[in-house]
Amino acid sequence: MSDERNQTNSKQEQLKEHTRDDQGKKLTTNQGLKVSEDEFSLKAGTRGPTLMEDFHFREKMTHFDHERIPERIVHARGFAAHGEFEVYESMKEYTKAGFLQNPEKKTPVFVRFSTVAGSRGSGELARDARGFSTKFYTEEGNYDLVGNNIPVFFIQDAIKFPDLVHALKPEPHNEIPQAASAHDTFWDFVANNQESAHMVMWAMSDRAIPRSFRMMEGFGVHTFRFVNEEGKSHFVKFHWKPVLGTHSVVWDEAQKLNGKDPDFHRRDLWEAIENGDYPEYELGVQILPEEDEFKFDFDILDPTKLWPEEDIPVKLIGKMTLNRNVDNVFAETEQVAFHPGHVVPGIDFSNDPLLQGRLFSYTDTQLSRLGGPNFHELPINRPVCPFHNNQRDGIGRQTINKGQVSYHNNSLAANTPEPASESEGGYKHYQEKMEGHKVRARSDSFKDHFSQATLFWNSMSKPEKDHMTNAFSFELGKLENASVQQQVVDMFGNVSMELATNVAYAVGANTPNGEDSGVTKSSPALSQENTKKKPDTRKVAVIVHSDFNGEKVRGVLTRLKADNIQPEILSGRLGIVKGSEGIELEVDHTFLTADSVLFDAVYVVSDAKEDKAFYKQASYFIHEAFSHFKPLGATGEGKKLLKQDHIEKSPGVVIDEDTEEFATNFIQAISAHRHWDREVV
Ligand code: HDD
């Protein structure tokens, strides 16, 4: 369906050549032979043994037996979509990257979002960082921005990545827990590798349980370089800013969602694209002249540090729109191979030791995951520009390279394919002057692990701080080892004594007796309280029984839809509910098939006390939504349901007689996302 809505582009055209529609066709073997029977294997007599000769059975079964490939070592659970990127104005001053020059030009992109720790089938609402990988199919080759929704990382040197991941993944003796950091080995790693402090603060914050892939930021994390035509370099950090703002769910909701709909995030993205509500993100850059490299109280090469936006503003330079779902998840989402080393002229690396190590790992991992060195030929990975070199053969090779020459230098093919000069687009590494001794060591400038962790804490609103305290208390509360608990509490005393003291109390540990980093600065950009707030695409459960005020409810639903809010009708059973003035509504969900955690807000139309089952289930639904700080509204009979326990007097609960006034206030309450100033009863 989304195909028709989409303008085509060079990548879509290329993919089309590899796309096959089997509908309405005759069944054949892989050799093209038409098959006459697909129900029964070939046997010696109807009750006899199966014959070896049955090539159709053997081919079908052999292919099936090999359908799975190893899942990604991290980021196994992911979902992707196609889209396009446009730059707002030429970035010529800073970079010669072709796709950042011309606002008229659309660059095809493929974006995969993921959780880090869980296996391929794990619940999507795990407390975890989210991967945010973008492949730009530029005319100069593929450029991959392989980032996360958290701007810093757990470790400073890639050599520690296997240790981090071993500690984070399910414990090896019993493979528990799935997609969760709340276990002893992870926290033992944290306490004994204190460079993790800053990222752990983010992971314990609401950022780690996003409401939607469409409502989270993305970060390139490392410091990269922009290089312009003149060869001048600037340091750069990349950001993705979601047009819908950055929003999260609450932890109780996240845990329930993992059971009610483990596909919640992919379903949300898929449906938004199918509905034409294309997710949009603006690309932001923080640019730093080379001369300013040492002007900060942190090292810009340290991936556990961010550049406060108030000190180095984020310049928004373009927009990405995701406008087409994949045709086949395995062929596209599973086989896509990202690599931070896929760069184009004008974008280069810094000496961040984490980035340097990543440059090795990504190709290496694809060799076992995708089975050999030719994964760049898979349709989703092919650049849209031509590529020529002397690489040959290997498992699954698809290109038929002509000619006798596959080496360089040669005379038999006039020394081609030949390297391109810089003016012809040849990639030239930035000629940074380097000198130093070969050492296995870390710079002293990487040694402050707590100041920015405190900066993050200082920047949180009161509800955000409460959520973090609860997150730490939950995670440490799950630990079996009291010594690890105490080590972590002591460690976070360096970040905030307030946080560590409250967590120590919750988990029965001793109050740490140190001092925190003493940082008093805060960065408002880090708090989600300051994000954009819009009602668009929010889902509202409309709780209806028969005999409702038809005119009023229709009026409210029309207003909600006009603001691109999505009301869905919920009742005791599927079918039609009838209101006054002959107004009928088709029921989308029952209390059995839906749950309050699947919605952003609730509009209560009916009370229906006489229908005991309805009343009981509606009350539970409303109370749960209320406890998750969601906006609630009621008109007519529905008001009675909100009057229980005085819910109707709480912030974010809208009860008005006048339809227009009700709709306006309810939409405003929906835009606010959650109402933290509510006392949960
Ligand atoms: Fe990584 C996958 C992001 C550090 C090694 N990483 C992977 C993916 C994302 C990131 C989003 C999923 C890509 C996809 O959708 O296919 N990784 C990051 C970020 C990091 C980071 C933002 C720190 C700034 N990663 C990192 C290090 C190493 C790796 C330090 C190893 C030295 N990452 C891998 C990997 C993966 C991977 C093992 C697994 C699957 C894959 O590459 O294709 O190579």
Could you give a quick summary of the protein structure above?
The protein is α/β, with parallel strands linked by helices and 681 residues long. It contains 18 helices and 18 strands.
| Helix count, DSSP H or I runs of 4 or more residues | 18
The description of the largest β-sheet is: 10 strands, antiparallel
Here the CATH topology of the largest domain equals Catalase HpII,  Chain A, domain 1
Net shape: globular
Q: Which ligands, by name, code or SMILES, are bound?
A: CIS-heme D hydroxychlorin gamma-spirolactone
User: What fraction of the residues are assigned to beta strands by DSSP?
Assistant: 15-25%
Mean pLDDT: 96
N-to-C CA distance: 45 Å
Tally of distinct domains: 3
The CATH class of the largest domain: Mainly Beta
- Gyration radius over CA: 28 Å
CATH-defined superfamily of the largest domain: Catalase core domain
Low-confidence residue ranges: 1-5
Structural class of the secondary elements? alpha/beta
Overall CATH architecture of the largest domain:
Beta Barrel
Helix content: 25-40%
β-strand number: 18
